[in-house]
Amino acid sequence: MGSSARKKKEKKKDFQKPKLRVGKTKAKADNFTDTSFKSKSIVVNQQSLSTSAKSSSSQFAHYLSLASSSKSDTQRRDALAYLTTQLSSQPVNEPMPLPTAIILPKLLPLILDGTSSVRSQLLKFLRLLPPSDVGDRAEQSLLYTRAGMTHLAAEIRVDALSILEWLLEVAKDDVVTCPGGWMKTLKSFMTMMGWATSSGSTKWTSASKSSFGKFAFGKAGKAFPRQLLVLAQFLKAGLVEPEDSLPTSEGTATFPICQVGMHMIPTRSNAFAHLNLFGTSRDEDGEMYIDREDRQRVFHKNFRAAVEEGISTAQKEAGEAGRAAAVLSKVVRDGMADYTDIDD
Amino acid sequence: MVRKRVGALEKVDADLPNLQYKIRRDPRSYTEEFLNQYGQYQSQRDIFMASPNTASSSGIISFSNLIDFVAHVSDCFPEDTAEFPEDLKTILTLHHAELESELREKIVGSLVLLRRKEIIDSSNLLNALFPILVATPSKTLRTLLFQKILSDLRTSNAKSINHRLNRTIQTALFNLLTSDRTSSKGIWAVKITRELWKRQIWTDAKAVEIMKEASLADNEKVIGGGVRFFLGGDKEREELEDESSDDEAIDVGKLKHQAGINKKNKKAKRTIEDAVKKVKRNEKKKNQPHPLNFSALHLLHDPQGFAEQLFSKHLHNGKSKLNLDQKLIVLQLVSRLVGLHKLTVITLYSYFIKYLTPRQPQVTSFLASLAQATHSLVPPDALEPLVQKIANEFVSEASASEVASAGLNAIREICVRQPLAMSDTLLQDLVMYRKSKDKGTMMAAKGLLSLYREVGADMLKKRDRGKTATMGIKSGSIKERRFGEEDAGGIEGLELLEQWKADERKRKRAERGLPELGTDEEDNEDDEAEEQAGWDNWDAESDASDDSGGWIAVDSDDEINISDSDDDQPSSKKVKLDTAAKQPETEEEKEKADAVLENKISKLATTKILTPADLAKLQELRLEASMNKAMGKNKTQAQRLKEIADRHADDALTADQIEGFSKLRKSTKEEMIALAREGKGERGEHKSTQALRRAKKDAEGKSTTNKEKARKKNFLMTLGKAKYKQKRSLTQTRRVLKGHIERSKRGGKRGNIGM
């Protein structure tokens, strides 16, 4: 009931006006929240405390790490763009801010990046790298390229083809001779183009290439002729003998000594890699196929039938695909012209 | 050309679960899609293997998703994915330390999935997982692997015991223990073995052998695990079995009743069917012959060697690093082995001497171990100094009462097992403590006294011997037992059977009107007939049970008749039977006859082949006898001695038993409060007992009593009656009172008519 004096007083208290006095601080409101805090240190996230500007190489390294590990795709793309301009605007004879050996492993995973602008920017950047440095890292690059070629997303597959094209431009020999470079890459091509056959399957012909193969639409729809062309390039690199492979005047110039080049210190790094002295043992897929004959043999044994069948169907399609198939068939014919089937 | 939305197609491409579902429905049509994914998996794997620590799981689909996908559909494409399990295994074995935890778990899970799809076999899986379990520094991975290994072992042993797998795993565990005795990795062998022992998956000697090796290891943890297994593993197993059998009880009647009342639908029907099936299965299981599960201690090969090794390695060895607690459990195990298998480890007893002082921490455990290590084949010379020392150190007027009672209890427990360890002066001295003021001491001393009345009455003073013992000594039925003397064994309950047969025969004769005591020939005839019946019965049963074709044609009765016909034997047994059957009238003579019956070993089994009917009867009689014993009918000395000895054979002796009534350590306040609270239930707030009781009844949905109703009744409603009561006339009062009496007789207003 609240009849007692105490309760009456309590009720009244709510409506009493607080008394303000001169010289005293104002009383705190009822719902006052103390927001002050104490901290032992202050961390500034974005600010650099150094007075001098960053050196260009450290700036380069910073953007490199941004490009490789940033979560936002625009940031990745911008960082890559920065790196590209940095590298292109450099004087010709000046060494690179960071060696390729550091740059390449960081940027290669971007082949599988989900954003197309990042991938195209990556290709632009890669084209600026000195070709001589790329050859030694062809195996690593091919790992990611293959992953891209078999990727679920069609756009990534297409862009991975451009990367492979670039690789074939700058380091043709290394691409086809490095461990796994021949066999595994060919296998990736086969799955990508839908020419692969299951090792355990029966004679089950599948016409469903709706999503992956040549009948895809849009940007990926034009992919099939392109795939054929890149495959032709690849096969050409591996199978067709380069015209200038034999120096014209080898025996005559230095007559008493023949084939000097063979006995000199090798110019390429890790010249005995094919012996695989220190690594784990490789299987057929991961083997190095140094000789053209080896590559021909492997191609004949595993892929030739599938490729020729694919070419014949593609030629029937005519149009762009048919023209590309004609190029491919010419390469295959040239490459395998001098091949004699050895029973092995 | 039809326009299609590319975006949607793309989405479908990246949708692995969807693809997985499609592949499972129609593997061959989706071969190409699968090969694409598998190619992607292979390239991702290559990237991963090239740099396991830097490979990130970014991108549209991660490596772990691909692994999951391939594992799920790999049974549809066995040829293409032939190397997939090997890949997973190599990734796991090479990189388990630096793998991302999520990916690691995914790989382990995928391997187990492959095992479930029977793409790889159990031993393959376990051989891959087990080395990682032992080697990995990650705790989460260890728990995961342990759980997976256990569950796999359980599932592969679920239908029938997979002996081959068990053998390989047991060998692997054994090798793990023996290869490096100092490492703590052996603890995993111990854990796995113990768990499987608990669940009765491993019940053989090999598992025990593993634990034996664990107990003989050099690492403290492993030793502890092994020793604890022997001390508690079997109990754990029994408890688990009890638990699992408890929760299976289903009331089918109740379910059927519910189904009759509730809504009738398919689900309810199925529930009942399941319940009935389960009950039937349980019943079948119950009727199956109980699997013989020997305890771990009984399955040991060479317990003598084991006990000696344990003792010399962990206890008697100066370099042993075990602390007191660990030493105590090892000592418990050694003494248990010695007591159970009656081993001879003479040095063990002298080892005890230095620990037998009241100041020794946990001395009661030492005393218990000592008593446990005593058995009838221990030389009394080895024990006598120990008993003497206990008496000197513990039992004196000056020592605390708890100490004295503990000492007395220990001495009694030793002497139960080896009565010859006591000298008569010491005994007479100790028995005097039965006059002690302290209850614990008094009880302990009385226990000792009653023990020696049974086993060595002549060592007591004459007035302490008691009536039965004095009479026994006088009549010569109680004899002093010598060291190493064993009772000649027989078939338990055989004399009962003999007795019963004699009674039966007498009854039959009485039925036929013949005199109670017949001639031998008649008895023989009876016997033959009876036996024939017994065998016939058995033959019928066996014919019904086994269908082994032509074997039935052989007339087995002839053979049996030849082998056990009594005609060519002098019927010496019959004479004895007759003497037993002559039924002396007087009570004294009957007692004597009983004694004779008991003392001589019945010849029934040596002169006659027991028929199956006989064996069944024997079982029945044994059961009856044990019931009688439990009811407390009077027993003979031999029976009582046997009981005392049996009580100690199988169960371990604990320190609590030595401490007896007075614990050395008084209970703490918390313990006392807990003891007082026990069984009082939860008491949230302070209320009267009545209120609490009422609340409990309300919760159970029970009604109030009339008294409570009256108490709760509104005051105003009672007012009129109360006022009226004052104004009643005498007749009215009488009528009311009479009515009340009548109602109470009738049992309420309406009365208990129906009852």
Q: Helices, strands, pairings?
A:
The complex is a heterodimer of chains A (344) and B (755).
Chain A: H1 5-13, H2 56-69, H3 73-88, H4 100-107, H5 116-128, H6 131-136, H7 138-149, H8 154-170, H9 172-177, H10 183-193, H11 218-221, H12 223-239, H13 250-253, H14 260-263, H15 292-317, H16 319-335
Chain B: H1 6-14, H2 16-25, H3 31-50, H4 63-73, H5 84-95, H6 101-116, H7 122-135, H8 139-156, H9 163-179, H10 186-198, H11 205-215, H12 220-246, H13 252-261, H14 266-287, H15 303-315, H16 324-341, H17 346-352, H18 363-372, H19 380-394, H20 401-417, H21 424-431, H22 439-455, H23 467-475, H24 494-512, H25 520-545, H26 556-564, H27 572-581, H28 587-599, H29 604-607, H30 612-631, H31 637-650, H32 655-659, H33 669-677, H34 689-700, H35 706-712, H36 715-726, H37 730-746
Structure description:
- The complex is a heterodimer of chains A (344) and B (755).
- Chain A is built from 16 helices and no strands.
- Chain A is an all-alpha fold and 344 residues long.
- Chain A has a domain at 172-197 and 213-242 and 271-344.
- The termini of chain A are far apart.
- Helices cover 66% and strands 0% of the residues of chain B.
- Chain B has 37 helices and no strands.
- In chain B, helix 18 runs parallel beside helix 20.
- Chain B starts with 5 loop residues before the first helix and ends in a 9-residue tail after the last helix.
- The model of chain B is unreliable at 1-10 and 539-587 (pLDDT under 50).
Write a compact overview of the structure shown.
The complex is a heterodimer of chains A (344) and B (755). By secondary structure, chain A is mainly α.
Low-confidence stretches of chain B: 1-10, 539-587
Major β-sheet profile of chain A: none
Instruction: Compute the number of strand runs of chain B.
Output: 0
Note the overall shape of chain A: elongated
The whole-number mean of residue pLDDT values of chain B reads 79
N-to-C SSE string of chain A, H for helix and E for strand: HHHHHHHHHHHHHHHH
Q: Note the quaternary state here.
A: heterodimer
- Provide the gyration radius of chain B in Å: 38 Å
* Estimated share of beta-strand residues of chain B: under 5%
Class from secondary-structure proportions of chain A:
mainly alpha
Radius of gyration of chain A: 33 Å
Task: Estimate the helix proportion of chain B, in percent.
Answer: 55-70%
The DSSP helix count of chain B reads: 37
The helix fraction of chain A, in percent, is: 40-55%
What structural class should be given to the helix and strand makeup of chain B?
mainly alpha
Largest sheet of chain B: none
What would the principal axes of the Cα set say about the shape of chain B? Answer: extended
